[in-house]
Amino acid sequence: MSAILGSVDATRGPPTAVPLRHVVVALAFLVAGVLVGAADAAGAVPGVAHLAHVHLLFVGWIAITILGAMTQFVPVWAGTTLYSRRLANLQLVLVGGGVATFAVAFATTSWWLLLAGALAMWLGFLAFAYNLARTLLTVDDPGTTEGHFAVALVAFVLLSTLGVLMAGNYATGVLAALGVDQAAARGAHVALAVFGAILTTVYGALYQLAPMFTQSDLDALDHRCRRVESVAHPVGVLALAAGRFADAVVVARIGGVLVVLGAFTFAVVFARRLWHARVEPGALQRRYAVAALALAAWAAASAPAWLSDPTAPDALLGAPDVGPLLLVAAVGFVVAGTSYHVVPFLVWVERYSDRLGYEPVPSIDDLYDARVARSELALVVVALLGALAASVLTVPDALVALAGTLAAVGVLAFAGNLVGVVHHHAARGVHAVVLGALAPRRTRGEVDTDR
After folding, report:
1. Does Nucleotide-binding count among this protein's keywords (predicted)?
2. CA nearest to 332, candidates 295, 302, 278
3. Across 69-73, 267-271, 339-343, which has the greatest mean pLDDT?
4. How many domains is the chain built from?
């Protein structure tokens, strides 16, 4: 993976501590989400624990990782400069604090606290969207990736605004006063969040990352698929969300079909780049391969469900039962695989890049434990297969519990492996990455990169 270094100029982004802080905080939310999910399965968490679990994973882990990665690499890919570093730091405080407050509020059924958390996240996503929008406006010739990111920014603003209204509904019943059905709002919120913000960002990023990390360029078939996805997916997300919000089944059905079409055509591009890879498979490529298979399987499984009724409560994420599992796998393995490059890369740039050529330095892949990476991948894949089997077959409860345990162990090992990179190799360690200027001054004789 060190071959990638020549094509990335990290100096155009913010100081490496800014995106690295996002990823470390996101990993903490991932661990919290796993623990809350396990406790919820055991009936040990009061309140609406499953919603706390969902938001810790989707907002705390996936969205905050996306915020950090886009803040760093949008300026790099677009050949411009980030509009504001202060907004990049502020977005983490607001979104991170908001999702933590959200989780506590759901667990304690404190609805005014829930509204406070929603408002904090809304402000954080607004800061993020404004910062990235101002950055993208300086791009002279925006391409496919920038177009996807622009769509995702709009989705972040819409979903968080709707989230504030939904949170306020718990405390004041505001949706009923506005004549909006809670279930309809929830369906639109899920569509904007998962398909509009998260999946659109994933597609846009992978149009850059897949060729970069496979060292293979898109060919004519890939470009045709890209053109289909670039229209079908954004239009589909808008129609799906609008159809659900207005309870217009036909509109939502058209949107659902377009989202599925976009997912399938993108999966073709993604899988073909991995098949034609000219590099040895590593932690990133293996996870990308699982993600490509999961995305194609999700599209195949979800098409019948959304043709039937895309507004059904059990079809919010596609096919009932298997749809959520496959979609979480598709997104989760992309985020996990990318994290296996982003975290070591940022640490390497900060700690070792200026030593290259003067003394022996480790490669990017040397910073994490490859054995742990292979082991936790195997654990999570086996757990995923077990969960998929349990969703369509009658299996003993003990096997379901075993799958959950394997997934939890694998996720904790993944988080520990990446936090270990920061602990052992970052100039100032984990505490300084998280606390920034509030941390004690330099402890390893390195310059402060958080200016």
Report:
1. no
2. 295
3. 267-271
4. 1
Q: How far apart are the first and last CA of the chain?
A: 28
Q: What's at 193, amino acid-wise?
A: A
Rounded to 5°, the CA angle 91-94-100 comes to 130
Q: In angstroms, how far is CA 332 from the centroid of its own chain?
A: 7
Report the candidate in 128, 124, 8, 132 with the shortest Cα–Cα distance to residue 74.
Answer: 132
25 token code pair = 């905080």
Please report whether residue 442 resides in a domain.
no
Q: What is the pLDDT of residue 14?
A: 57
Can you tell me the distance from the alpha carbon of 250 to that of 48, in angstroms, rounded to the nearest whole number? 32
State which amino acid sits at residue 113.
Answer: L
Q: Which long-range contacts (CB under 8 A, 24 or more apart) does 308-315 make?
A: 309/249, 309/253, 310/240, 310/243, 310/244, 310/249, 310/252, 310/253, 310/255, 310/256, 311/184, 311/187, 311/243, 311/244, 311/247, 311/249, 311/252, 313/183, 313/187
35: its two tokens: 């623990």
Does residue 42 lie in a domain region? yes
Is 178 within a domain?
yes
81 touches 135 (CB < 8 A): yes
Q: Could you tell me which of 171, 133, 173, 135 has the C-alpha nearest to residue 155?
A: 133
Confidence (pLDDT) at 253? 98
Range of the domain at 407: 2-352+361-433
Whether residue 438 lies inside any domain: the answer is: no
Residue 96 sits in a domain whose CATH number is 1.20.210.10
Torsion angle, alpha carbons of 99, 92, 72, 351, to 10: -110
Read off the DSSP letter of residue 220.
Answer: H
Least confident interval from 2-11, 19-28, 114-123: 2-11
Query: What's the rounded Cα separation, in Å, for the pair 173 and 94?
Result: 25
Q: Answer for the pair 194, 134: CB distance below 8 angstroms, yes or no.
A: no
Least confident of 107-116, 173-182, 258-267: 173-182
Per-residue pLDDT tens for 319-356? 998 999 999 999 999 999 999 999 999 888 888 888 87
Whole-angstrom distance, CA of residue 367 vs CA of residue 345: 9
**What's residue 448's pLDDT?**
46
* Residue tagged 């505490």 (tokens): 431
- C-alpha distances (whole Å) from 381 to each of 93, 286, 391, 407 are 33, 11, 15, 8
* Mean predicted lDDT score pLDDT of the chain: 90
- C-alpha distance from residue 304 to each of 248, 294, 316, 328 (Å): 18, 17, 13, 19
Across the range 364-385, mean pLDDT stands at: 95
Q: Residue 439: which pLDDT band, with cuts at 50, 70 and 90?
A: low
